[in-house]
Amino acid sequence: MATLMEDEVFKAFSTYAAIVILKMLLMAPMTAYYRMTRGAFSNEEDVALKPAEERKKLLRTHPDVERVRRCHQNDLESVVPFVMVGLLYALTGPELSTALLHFRVFAGSRIFHTISYVGALPQPSRALSWTAGMLVTFSMAYRVLSTVLLL
Description:
By secondary structure, this protein is mainly α. The chain has helices spanning 2-6, 8-38, 52-58, 63-91, 96-118, 125-148. This is Microsomal glutathione S-transferase 1.
């Protein structure tokens, strides 16, 4: 384990995995912030202390809240596979420069994806950032499979 923690590729992976995981984790408080500031809640218990007439007004959807919530869902669908595949990729011994390119493009694509999603930037900004992240994950998966494939 000590040798692994000294490996430059593994350190780089750990750094970028932590960045995208933290970004993903910050989406939940961001969703809560948007819910509170937009007065749009999805559950009865969230508005239980409000008067009955106010509860009806607060139990609603809001486009800003939905955009942040969907962005968080998309993070779960992209960041989790990146972390799993990226760990296996780091263990295949890739060149540091190639690994850094993969990790940086993925982290950048997820950060830009969030900016374009929450900021409601016009397409294809969100689609291109999502595609870049997925291509990185597929590229790493290809490296893993081509390195260790045993059928």
